[in-house]
Amino acid sequence: MTLSAQDQSSVAAGRGIGAAREWIRSEFERYAKDCGGCLEVKTDSFTEPAGDRIPQPTEITNVYAVLKGTDAQSAKRIVLVTGHYDSRNSDTLDVKGDAPGANDDASGTAVSLECARVLSKLKFPATIVFLTVAGEEQGLNGSRHFAAMARQQGWEIEAVLNNDIVGGDKSAEQDHSVVRIFSEGLPAAATEQEIKRIGGLGGENDSTSRQLARYIADVDLSYDVGVKPLLVFRLDRYLRGGDHYSFNQQGFAAVRFTEYREDFHHQHQNVRTENGIEYGDLLKFVDFDYVAAVARLNAATLASLASAPAPPANVRLLTKDLENVSTLTWEDPMGDRAVGYEILWRATASPDWEHVEKVGKVTRATLNLSKDNLIFAVRAVDARGHRSLPFVPLPER
Ligand SMILES: [Zn+2]
Q1: How far is the CA of 136 from the centre of ligand 1 (A)?
Q2: From residue 277, how far is each of 15, 123, 170, 266, 342 by CA, in Å?
Q3: How do residues 233-284 score in pLDDT, each as one tens digit?
């Protein structure tokens, strides 16, 4: 719990958020040692001022590890996986009682850690950041600080995978073959003018976060990870929020992974038994094989994106003339590894891309299809078939 103890003796006794922080740091450091120092282990500490769910100024620490990209040009591109390591009891201000948080969100924290352990054995052209944040239950404080820092420092984050409640609670109605992927429709960071354009052109289903969600579904077709992504086209569940939103607010593509069916007796509850019902977020309710499958889906997505060439820049759809063909233009990022580009399209009423056409190493293509009836996007491909996230063009007059 974010407001719990973090003094030396509590850390030594293995109690409180400070002990959790130090354990995560030591795990990252262990993986770093195993890969010859390939991971840089860092912390992002700050004092959160008093607020709604924070009675007094509180130090919050995000712990993360950076697997730097091996390609000088691609290394500034970042893909990120995160989970929150704080938890809570029935009373969100209870700083003393045990709040095991096995599913919410030790499961997501474990996904981030395990991705770091496994992917640090490999090399990728682009950079991967493995993040664990605190303060989620008090108001997304850790992720808000981290995302703002990333924006301020000009980090080029292409994708954020937020894993929150991916334990596959062992309730009778659980579906362990499915994990939900939530993504925003209208971008939280869009300006009023952008919202107007999106509304006018039917772009409500094409935020960068939604392209990321579709990308994950595509990754699942290439790798048998043991769990199927179920895309949910909304920011989050009713009455709930999560750390992906902090990144969305800063204009980054970010989605949320959550188990198919949550058991609300096992979240945000003091550990107890009442009328024969067991309450509390205990480890025994977590399905480890399920968490492992979700981790594989995350790892495959991170590896695909970190291997892919940079997406095309400044993708445009020419709209100056009334015509029944569609011309797209884009820029080829300098010194990048793309060997060609692909144009994707679908009917406006279709949820996912339906067609793809290879157009080679060009920066302009005309298709004998009407832009009035379709939605287009462009993505880059490298020599080994790794694909970037697709980008939907802005209209250009
Ligand atoms: Zn959570």
Answers
A1: 7
A2: 27, 48, 14, 10, 54
A3: 999 999 999 999 999 999 999 999 999 999 999 999 999 999 999 999 999 9
Residue 64 Cα to ligand 1 midpoint, Å, equals 18
Under DSSP, is residue 322 helix (H, G, I), strand (E, B) or coil? coil
CA of 314 to the centre of ligand 1 (A): 36
pLDDT digits (tens, 9 = 90+) for 167-206: 999 999 999 999 999 999 999 999 999 999 999 999 999 9
Q: How far is the CA of 87 from the centre of ligand 1 (A)?
A: 7
3-state secondary structure of 6: coil
Of the candidates 80, 75, 45, 73, the one whose C-alpha atom is nearest the C-alpha of residue 59 is: 45
Q: Are 48 and 133 in contact (CB under 8 A)?
A: no
C-alpha distances out from residue 250 to 46, 47, 161, 315, Å: 18, 20, 15, 21
**pLDDT interval class at 397 (50, 70, 90):** confident
- C-alpha 132 – ligand 1 centre gap (Å): 12
Provide the token pair at 103: 């599913």
Residue 137 Cα to ligand 1 middle (Å): 7
CB neighbour burial string for 7-30, b if at least 16 within 10 angstroms, e if fewer: eeeebeeebbbbbbbbebbebbee
**Terminal alpha carbon distance of the chain:** 53
What band does 316 get if pLDDT is binned at 50, 70 and 90? very high
CA of 267 to the centre of ligand 1 (A): 9
Ligand 1: distance of its center to the CA of 379 in Å? 33
